[in-house]
Request: fold
Amino acid sequence: MRLKISQILKKGKALYLAYDQGLEHGPTDFNDKNVNPEYILEISEKGKYTAVILQKGIAEKYKEKIKVPLILKLNGKTNLLKGEPISRQLCTVKEAVKLGASAVGYTIYLGSLHESTMLQEFEKIQREAHSIGLPVIAWIYPRGKSVKNKSSGKLMAYCARVGLEIGADIIKIKYNGKFKDLKWAVKNAGRTKVVIAGGIKKRETLLLKQVREIMKAGCIGLAIGRNVWQSSNPLQLTNKLKKIIWGKS
Ligand code: FBP
Reply:
């Protein structure tokens, strides 16, 4: 079955709007405006995002408001439980397809005591998704007691390489701010495409500088959340991001 990846790419590049933080972090990320999924879905539509990333609950309840391709996140966890991180599957590939997803996403905490559980769960998802041509995106973050420095360049490259080895079509990793490290990570990803997470809201000048580096390093774009929907002008920022990613808005 041919992989339907062009549905979540525009000229080979990507700008995804991530909105799964309500589960991952809780409402501390939200204000009166962005707590409402309709606000985020409006940004994704008006900003012509390449896709929006949601958990199944929001995808189900706000289905008619989703106007751009959907990437359905299949696992997730809260940040309340401490200890070795594990994020288990909460939605199936079949359900994702029913909800109209153009791709599915799954987080793996590399280095966690529970790494093998997540790798195995990912494998089943990857196999099923690929059997129907659905692209799979792996969020790969180094986490857990055995990870000494989660923003080391070596680990960033390791995450990228694992993404290639396990059959992810796109990986989402965090940029440690060191251009040379990112270039090496992208090389390690081989034919697996790389997008970068936004992280906590930062100064716009710093964000834009990093996005220029991200594109120069060979990534295909961003999967960004808080920096956009916590911004006082999300659409203006979106245009700036698009200018860097595609060379025009
Ligand atoms: P942000 O751009 O808001 O950082 O979103 C990217 C993302 O990967 C989300 O999809 C996810 O909810 C969050 O970051 C997880 O971040 P962390 O595990 O570091 O708390």
Observations:
- The pocket of 1,6-di-O-phosphono-beta-D-fructofuranose is lined by residues 18, 20-21, 24-25, 139, 141, 197-199, 224-227 (CB under 6 Å).
- Residues 115-131 form the longest helix (17 residues).
